[in-house]
Structures are given as C-alpha cells and as structure tokens.
Design a protein that fits this description.
The protein is an alpha/beta fold. Helices cover 41% and strands 22% of the residues. It has a seven-stranded mixed beta sheet with strand order 3-2-1-4-5-7-6, sandwiched between helices. Helix 6 links the parallel strand 4 and strand 5. The chain is globular, with a radius of gyration of 17 Å. The N and C termini lie far apart (45 Å). The mean pLDDT is 90.
C-alpha cells in the first residue's frame, strides 16, 4: 500500500469518533461556500473524512464527486450517506481524468499532504477555466496560539499540539505561507477569510457554551490572521471573472 494511504488509514479512527469543534468549523466553511457559489457546475471534494462535510456540501452542488484515498474513510462516508455519491478511491496525485471541475473543495486537507505546492498544481490542472478552489487550513498565528506563545506555553507559534499529531498534520499555516503556496502553484488568490476567532484553548471555549462559540466563528471573518482556520478561494492565473 502507498505510504501516504497507509498514513491516512492509521488516522481514520479520529474521523470515526468525530469532533464537535471540527464539525462546527466545517459548518462555518460550508456557510461561506454557499454564500460565494453562484452556479452549481461540476464539483470535486478532495478528502471526505467521515463524510460530515460531504453530507452538507451535496445540498449545495448537483454534479458531485468525492476523491478520497483512504478505504476506511470511504466506508465511514458510505455509512453516513449510502452509495449514491460518485466516489473515487485514489490519491489526488494519482488521479487521472478528462473531466474539468467548476468547484474544487480542498477543506482541511492541505496541511496533511506531503507536497502542498504539487497538490495545488494538480488542482489547477483539474479546474475548468472559470473554476475556483476553496481551501481551508489551520492557522498557527491564531489569537490563542499568540497568547500561548506570550505566556511561555509554546516554544514557537507553529509548535504542534497533541491533536495535530493525532490527525496527521504535517504543517500549520500563516496567511503569508498560504498565499505563497497558492501563488507558487500558479494559482491566483481571490479572497481569504478567517474561520473562528479563538481567544482561548478548545476546552476553555467549550466551557463558554455553543452560542458563544458560534459567535466567535463569524466574528473573525475579516481578520483571518487571528483566526484558528484560514479560508481561501483561488482560481487559475490570468483568468478574469466577468
């Protein structure tokens, strides 16, 4: 089995158990996508986890495909959604098709891949001329990490927490780093927003209650550099939307 697939199979148990905070982040990302999409078109979701995001995104798009290299994750999605979805069990780097996609959803995946620029270049090849890719990644310069660093709890802003190891993160992002990776892949950044202005650790945020958490999810939209997650929309370079 491919080493990358092996790694994904090993962390699949995390997706099986689920995580309330992660699900709320996905809900916010889905809301942002829904507000930005003007036509459905052909859509490719890369990396489905346990199918939580897919279950919500298929309500927005009609011609929907899911690319997921982990057999275990595919089974989790089938348990949630059945077999009606167009599922492709393959790594992005190995995926070959003549189809072009109007929307590619690359949510909470880029931080996992071995070569982020290569992955983004592959996405560029799959995009239609008017297509857009929606990307979300964890931000190591979030407000809670800045506070942790100032308090001496973190040796560096990008120091991994136990959860980062558990879910197989290879890197954490900054606004500048995400911009650089997008541009290096010959894509053009259209917009970047923040998801979840997180002043405290997850356990402390949970103590505030769901209503407070939901408020902080939307508060940081225009200040991505301080949010827990970055949400970017990119397109092929040199294409101008009408």
């Amino acid at each position: 089995m491919n080493e990358e697939v092996n790694m994904l199979e090993e962390i699949s148990s995390y997706y099986k158990n689920g995580d309330l905070m992660d699900e709320m982040i996905v809900d916010r990302e889905v809301s942002l996508i829904k507000n930005m999409v003007q036509n459905t078109g052909r859509t490719l979701e890369i990396g489905c986890g346990n199918g939580y995001s897919t279950e919500r995104l298929i309500k927005i798009f009609d011609d929907y495909y899911v690319l997921e290299p982990s057999h275990k994750n595919m089974e989790l999605m089938k348990e949630r959604l059945g077999t009606e979805i167009n599922m492709i069990n393959e790594l992005l780097e190995d995926f070959q098709t003549d189809r072009k996609f109007d929307h590619i959803l690359f949510l909470n995946v880029l931080e996992h891949v071995a070569d982020p620029i290569l992955s983004l270049e592959k996405i560029g090849e799959l995009l239609s001329e008017e297509g857009r890719v929606f990307i979300s990644v964890p931000n190591c310069m979030s407000l809670n990490r800045r506070a942790g660093f100032e308090m001496g709890l973190l040796e560096s802003h990008d120091q991994f927490a136990p959860k980062d190891y558990q879910v197989g993160h290879r890197r954490l992002y900054t606004v500048e780093m995400l911009k650089e990776h997008i541009e290096s892949a010959n894509l053009e950044l259209e917009t970047m927003k923040g998801v979840f202005l997180k002043p405290l650790a997850e356990s402390q945020m949970m103590e505030l209650g769901l209503d407070a958490i939901k408020a902080f999810y939307s508060l940081g939209e225009d200040i991505p550099q301080y949010c827990a997650n970055l949400f970017a929309v990119a397109k092929k370079k040199n294409y101008e939307f009408v």
